[in-house]
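#struct-pred
JK: can someone run the complex with nicotinamide-adenine-dinucleotide? inputs below
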Amino acid sequence: MPVIVVPKGQVAGEHRVALVPDVARRLKALGAEIRIEKDMGGSAFFHDEDYGDDVSLAQDSAALYDKADIILSVQATLEDVEKMPDGCILIGFMAAHKQPELVKKLQQKKITALAMELVPRISRAQAIDALSSQASIAGYKAVLMGADMAPVFFPMLTTAAGTIRPASVLVIGAGVAGLQAIATARRLGAVVEAYDVRAATKEQCESLGAKFIDMDVKAEGEGGYARELTEAEKQQQRDVLADHIAKAHVVITTAAIPGRASPKIILQNMVARMRPGSVIVDLAAEGGGNCELTQPGETIEHGGVKIHAPLDVASQMPLHASEMYSKNLFNLLTLMIAEGNLKLDWEDEVITGSALTHDGEIKHAATRELLEGAA
Ligand code: NAD
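RT: done, structure tokens with the ligand placed:
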């Protein structure tokens, strides 16, 4: 019977947890034994007693990690990995490009690390795709942040004191987060415009009630992602978007290109044309931001315009974020555990694609090149 262990996360400001009670019950039914650290779920409002008899509580890290086969985490840290048994399986977000020491430790301990950010984005793996589940939360939350900071109502209101016109919201980047932002802003009653470089998003934006800003700049890349724009395309994009940005009360930016810094779509002179009191919520802040003035993790003001660039947004809604993340982990575990037996299928592209390290080797090519290049 595989032993699944869930330590309490160590990353400051991270409120999500890797296992919720409902998933603990389902894992037990798969034939796993589950051990959690005391108060593991507390930051997402799940108490030890909520897990009932489906788990056992470990009082210290020696008891927690004893004979552990699989360790579930949200964000793995070096401190945690040092305590883990050699040869175990670790599943979680790894951010390998930012944590070379962590990768070295995983290699030394021959840990099989499955990184949730590496799960292939294929139809079969949609239920395992934690980037999508968490991006959807960020898109929703970004609209609430924008609505809270803007000096206007979102819906149209007819009151005794007069009629209030609805707010104008512009969403740039209509991937998973952007589409959820459009849906949320529409539910709050705003008039929404949207733009993305991938032509396929036009219909998706329109079906959610946004007006799509059409321009000739089209940049489908590989695997359903965008490619980087040429300098001429960037200029063309800015020329068209500048007027729309100037009119918006709230601009939500989510544009990203895998493996690259976020494209700078909103320049300082475009911010200068926005009306005072308007807000930019830059969800691309993790990659440096879509606005030239963005300071990741900060809120700044420029000519009366607020530029809000929150990091780790999904963690600010930890209960549902944990439920969704934990279900993503469960769906991955169903590929590995059957009738109480643990077996990694190295023919399965979901497993091979997610593998960061295995048996002392770095399996993920880009991380290997990055670390070997740095050596
Ligand atoms: P992402 O976070 O990498 O990027 C967000 C959006 O920014 C994308 O829609 C991209 O086209 C857009 N963008 C990039 N550069 C831009 C620019 N200069 N101007 C305007 N927009 C720009 O993407 P994501 O949300 O993680 O996913 C994008 C797409 O990938 C999805 O919409 C979907 O088609 C596909 N996907 C597939 C699966 C699956 O099949 N399992 C899962 C997730 C996503």
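RT: quick notes.
The longest helix spans residues 130-149.
The CA atoms of residues 31 and 225 lie 38 Å apart.
JK: thanks, will look after standup
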